[in-house]
Amino acid sequence: MAKKTPEKKSIPAQQENDKTTKLESFVADSTGEFLTTNHGLRINDDQNSLKAGERGATLLEDFILREKITHFDHERIPERIVHARGSAAHGVFKVYEDMSELTRAAFLCDPGAETPVFVRFSTVAGSRGSSDLARDVRGFAVKFYTQEGNFDLVGNNMPVFFIQDAVKFPDLVHAVKPEPDNEMPQAASAHDTFWDFISQMPESSHMIMWAMSDRALPRSYRMMEGFGVHTFRFVNAKGVASFVKFHWKPLLGVHSVAWDEAQNISGKDPDFHRRDLWDAIEAGAFPEWELGVQIVPESDEFKFEFDLLDPTKLIPEELVPVQRIGKMILNRNPDNFFAETEQVAFHVGHVVPGIDFTNDPLLQGRLFSYTDTQLIRLGGPNFHEIPINRPVVPVHNNQRDGHMRQTINRGKTSYGPNAIAANDPQQAKVADGGFVSYNERIDAKKIRARSRSFFDHFSQARLFFNSQSDPEKNHIIDALSFELGKVKAIEIRERMLAVLAQIDKGLATEVAYALGLHIPEIPLAELNNSIPADGERADYASTNPESSLAKSDALSMAGTIKDTIKTRKIAILAADGVEEKSLSKVKDTLVAEGAVVHIIAPKLGEIISKGDKKITVDESFLTAASVLYDAVYVPGGVNSVATLEAEANAIHFLNEAFKHCKAIAADEGALQVLESTYFFKKLTAEYTEETVLREGVIVSADVNLLTDTFVKMIAMHRFWERENPRKIPA
Ligand code: HDE
Hints:
Layout: H1 18-24, H2 63-73, E1 86-95, E2 115-123, E3 138-146, E4 149-156, H3 169-176, H4 192-198, H5 205-211, E5 226-227, E6 232-235, E7 241-250, H6 259-268, H7 272-282, E8 288-297, E9 323-332, H8 337-342, E10 355-356, H9 361-377, H10 459-466, H11 470-485, H12 490-503, H13 505-515, H14 524-527, E11 569-573, H15 580-592, E12 596-601, E13 606-608, E14 614-616, E15 619-620, E16 631-634, H16 638-646, H17 648-659, E17 663-667, H18 671-675, H19 678-684, H20 692-695, E18 697-700, H21 703-715
Parallel strand pairs: 11-12, 11-16, 12-15, 16-17, 17-18
Antiparallel strand pairs: 1-2, 1-9, 2-3, 3-4, 5-7, 6-7, 6-10, 7-8, 8-9, 13-14
Helix pairs in contact: 3-4, 5-10, 11-13, 12-13, 15-21
The protein binds CIS-heme D hydroxychlorin gamma-spirolactone 17R, 18S.
EC number: 1.11.1.6
Keywords: Heme, Hydrogen peroxide, Iron, Metal-binding, Oxidoreductase, Peroxidase
Protein name: Catalase
C-alpha cells in the first residue's frame, strides 16, 4: 500500500455566508411546481381519496392517502425538556482585531473573516406553545459555523445559574416545570414545587435575584444581554491559557417591560418576542450585539473572593472590564421553523481549537447532556447531518450507519488505523488545526464533594440587589411577593423569607409584609438542605461575607444605552377629523428616526382628516393594545378629539401606557383626551416644562418642540421613577 504524506490543509478564511449557500441545496421551493408524492410521482387528485364508488368505502390501495396521512401522523418530535419555546435567526459574526495573543481560534484571529451564525433565543420552563413573556430566564444560543468546525456558545441572558453542580439539574427542572399531578402552572415559577426546592438551595440566591428582576421580562430578544455563564478557557498557539467569560452586549441597550404589562402581552400576543425578532429582520432593522470577553490570566485564578469555577458567581465588570472583540448581526429569518429553529442542536461541547473548558461542575455535566438529549429528540446519532446542524467544513471520520444516515461514505475502511486506505481520514497535527485538550495538571482523589470556595451563597445576591435602581428594587420586591404569594404552603414562604433575610433584611421585610408573615429566625446552618446522607449539616453551612464591592453599575439596567428609538413601536390614536399636519409631522419624524408607527382608530380602513385627506388605519382599538407599543401620541382635530374622548378604549390605552411608564405626547388640541384620563389630573398640579422629561408626558402647541421632546422621551424607554408616586388604575 502506497504511504501518503498528509497534505497540510490550511484553514481558509470565511469570506461569505457559506452556511446560507450550503443550506440552499436543501431548500425546496414549490413555486410553479407540480404536486408529487414523496417519491416524485405527480399527483392528479389530492382532494379525493380513492373509493369503491362515489359513496363507497375508501380503498386500502390508496397509497397517496396513506402516504399523506402517515407522514402527518409522524410530524411531531419531542420538544426540548428545557428551552422548548424558541425563535431563531441567521446572521454573521466578525472579530474586530486579531485575538491570537489569547486564542488560536481562527475565527477570532482574522478580522477579515465573516463567520455565519445561527442564533436561537428561548424561554426555559414553558412548553413550545407557551407565551414569550413568562417571567423566566432566556436562552441565548449561538452556533458559529467556523472553518474549524462549529463552535456553540450556549448561553443565557443572565450571567449566573441556580445550581453549582449538574447533578441537581433534573431536580431543578422538575421543580420549576408544571407540577406532575395536574400539569399546572404552565411557564411559571410561581408555584410550590419551585420555591420548595429553591428555599432549600441557598446557592440559588444570586440567580433568584436575577430571575425576579426585570431581566426576566425582556422588551425584546434584541434588547437582551447574553452570557456564556461558565468560565471557559482561551488557549493560544503557544498553549498558554487564560480564563474567559463570554458576554453579548446588545447595541440597542438592555430593556424590559413591566410585570403587569408582561401578563397582558401574554394574552394579547403570546408571540410578542418571536414576532418582534421576525418583523425587525424583515424590515431590515438587523439586531446587533458585540461579543465581549473578560480575561483572567491563569496566574490570577485565586485572586478573587469567589471561585471562578462557581457558576453562581459573576466577575464584576468593575474588577475585570469587558473587552468588546467583535460584532454579530442577525440578518436573515429562517425559511422553515421546524427544519431550522426546531431541529438545530446546540452543544456546549462543540468547541474549536483555542477554546476549552474549565472544571466548573455545571459545565462538566452539560458536556454530557446535550448530545444525549439530541439522540432522543432528533431520533438517532445522525442529527449532525440535518442541514442546519452541518458544519460548513467537510466531516470525515469512521462513524457509520444509524437511523437516517445521509452521507454515502466511499471505500472499504471505516476504522483506523488502516493500511488499506493509507490511514485516511488522518489525524490532524496541531499545526494542521488538530484539537488538543488543554494540558491541565490534575492531581486529585475521587470524591463526591463541593469545594468550600463555593459556600458563599449570598454576597453576590446582595451585590446585585444593592446595584439596582430604586424602581428595579421595587420590581424585585413585587416579583417575590407575587411568586411567593402564589405558593400555598406557608412553611415554604417562611423558609424563603429566611433566605431573603440573608441577602438583605429590608428586602425580606418588604416581602414578609406583602405576605402577611414574619421572617423566621433560621440559622445559616439550617438553611442548606442539599447535604449528603452522611454529611454534617454544619459542614455545608453557607458562609455569608460581604462583597468588597458595594455596587456594580453594570448589573443595573438603569444606565443602559438610551440614545435611539430605532424599531420602537409607537401608537398614534386618531379618528375622523384628525389634524393631518400634526399627525404627519410626528409620524414622519419618528419613522425617519427608525421607529415603527401605527395609526390606531376606532375602526379599520381609513380615516378622513380635517382637510379631507384619507389616512390608512393600521389597527383598530379592538386589534391593538397599549402593551404592544412603547409610546403613544394623540394629534389634535376637534372631531377626532371628541371621538377619542368618548372612546373608552382610547382612554384605557392612555391610562395603561401611563401605568406602564411609557412616553405619552399630545398636541395641545388633544388636551381634552388627556384630561379624560386618570393620570393627567395627578400630573397637572406640578406640570411644567421642566417636569416633562421626568414624567414622560408632553402636551404642546409647538409641534417642533413636541416632536423633539417625544423622540428623547421614547429613547429613555420607560419612566420607572413615576411608577410608585403615580399609581393609577388601568
Ligand atoms: Fe442547558 N440544556 N443545561 N443550560 N441549555 C438544554 O439541550 C443542561 C444550562 C441552554 O436553543 C438541553 O438541546 C444541563 C446553563 C440553552 O436549542 C439539555 C444543565 C445554560 C439551551 C440541557 C444545563 C444553559 C439549553 C435541552 C446543567 C446557560 C437551549 C434541549 C448542568 C449557560 C438551546 C437541548 C437551544 C438546552 C441540559 C444548564 C443554556 C437537556 C444538564 C447553565 C440556551 O441538554
